[in-house]
Amino acid sequence: MTFTRVLIANRGEIARRIQRGCGKLGLESVAVFSEADRDAPFVIDADHAVCIGGAAPSESYLNIEAILEAARATGAGAVHPGYGFLSENAGFAAAVEAAGLVFIGPEADAIARMGSKIEAKAAAEEARVPVLPGYRGADQSDARLLEEARALGTPFLVKASAGGGGRGMRLVTDLKEAPEAITSARAEAKGAFGDAAVFLERYAPRTRHVEVQILGDSHGTVLHLGDRDCSLQRNHQKLIEEAPAADLPEAMRDDMRMAAVRLAQSIAYRSAGTVEYLYDPARGEYYFLEMNTRLQVEHPVAEAITGVDLVEWQLRIARGEALTLAQSDVQFDGHAIEVRVAAENPSENFLPETGQITLWEPPAGVRLDTGVERGSVVGHNYDSMIAKLIVHAPDRAGAIRRAVASIDEFAVGGVGLNLAYQRALLTHPDFQAFRHHTSGLSEMFPDGWVRPEPDARDLGLAAIALNLHQAPTDASPWQRLGAWRLTATSGRPGATSYWEESAEMPIRVSTDGVQLAAHLPEGESIRAEAATLIRGRLSGRLDGVPISRIAHVERASDHWRVHLQTSSGMMAIAFDTLEDRHLNRAAGGMVGADTLSAPMPGAVAEIRVAPGDRVNAGDTLVVLEAMKLLQSLPAPISGVVAEIYCAPGDTVAGNTPLIKLDPENQT
Q1: Which of 198, 251, 351, 535 has the highest CB neighbour number within 10 Å of its CB?
Q2: Recorded GO terms, molecular function (predicted)?
């Protein structure tokens, strides 16, 4: 089982993580990449790199033959699948082995058995692991499923046997809904996984998601590396993970851990894996959910509290090495939290964000697993998660504080991220008091989450930071004369004007040589003495009180953007100068209110209207696919479809006109 070169059948942050593991053991790494990832950091970091196809995953990262050919061409002796894509594909694991290569993961039989939720629950029962009551039989007829549904009683879930991520899952609260739920779950499961088999399971509301990290070698040793809680979820997708799981009875914690070890031993499991449970605090019970036969996204929190490098041990185990740790050697230190950093806009229903990263200033002193850097392009072809922020502290309260402090120092430009939303989760009383659960976001934000807005003080400081950026303190008198000099920043004599977002009245920044004053439209003034902006930090005295804030200034396409650290977190505040306003007015009139445009790059999945159709404002005209999500694009006004500029299958850029409406002919 010796190998010196590892092909990584994945991309982004997990590819770079595996590259670091290879480097630790002196192994060479081979990156395979799509045309869309040609200039990505994981490609540049690799010892060898091979392009295996187009941007679509089916043409590249899911193309088994292309991956195996790349391994043969580069002389790789092993393949690491990472997570996602082909990582839990038993056929891929078998194909790698059949090609004479080492698959860095469990055996194909174990992947296949745990990949079927029905078989996995049967294996759990055999290993004396509690499972939820339900029906998991081979008889998939409507009559049998409905009979079992009546016996089980409501509420219950219809779940796809091959499912994951909430696909192929339906909640039934009234038996009258059961036939439709079964039919729709089957159809979704067949389309998503190629397997229409479903099972029924009692629904446990207000549960927590607790999982146990396990590690097994090919010599019969299986260890657990503790537990973690992943209960903060949106649409069954995890947002924040922490280890160990807090507020868990110690006897139950021990039972969960040993049950996970028993299950792994019963299927002769090797490599890293995770046994997932639902924990019902009200009943004081836990139930087997599934087993993930791969490295988890959240594996860094287990590494943080144990000091065990999971990727290193995956590679060692794949080489046939025995674990040198006994269970008693695994010690647990402190508390760790992982925050998933995604390119999306939570205030706009988590709309994916795409574009080029123009500013990348992550926090110092914490672990950041990332697939991007300044200059990277975030496209629409892949998952929106671009990084993971991992913190470690002596206790949970300290880990939360450190995670919030790190988010408050994280400045990114060009692409919007979900960090403000994640900060709101971390600081929410329900999370801090451990009252949250897997479907609790609606309780935490019953009226929806609203992005914090800068207050007057923040706006004034941002304008001062922009003024300092444009006229630094070491500039010559000619550069500091403002509007007195034709080529410098414009405004009234002795002052510079900045318009925030769509504000009609500007913020005026003036100086007397000692103080900088920001005069806000409402009449309030912010005065800063000895103000400096050095290497992204605004310092000075604000109304006599010393201040020091992170403040990064960047030029966007047609405006300025100040990334300012505030009491509510990092905020990106956009400003226009007088020159910007003139230029923007001159370039206006490109796309009117009667035209539907693409809010982001993507592929046109569906067009629901034809020329001549009458539509109402808000009707869905186009469905756009971006980052594996479907976005319904509504009519901006009521009217008649005049022109359609796209067709299904087209790839369009952001702001591309799609459909023009004629408001004059509306009825």
Answers
A1: 198
A2: ATP binding; ligase activity; metal ion binding
